[in-house]
Known about the structure:
By secondary structure, the protein is an all-alpha fold. The protein has one domain (about 1-60). The protein is about 20% helix and about 0% strand. The longest helix has 9 residues, at about 15-25.
Amino acid sequence: MKSESRVPKMYRKGTKDWEEQYNMLHDDGVTCADCRSVNRCKSFGVTTPDSDRCDFYPNRFKAAIAETRKSPIRSKGGSGMDTS
């Protein structure tokens, strides 16, 4: 959910400009640090991890996926399964 009050006051609600500004906002409590593209955007110099809006039009925010699955360590000739 996004708070409409976060749209800069110079934009009038109901106009195309206001809608475009609203669509660039991340949901409340979400920052660029939560996006899978934050490192790419930082390398372009267009954002900081604490930004609450996307600097690319249209908004390209995609939530980062937490890495929870670990692959087994495989050794040469082994199956990677612990058989002890």
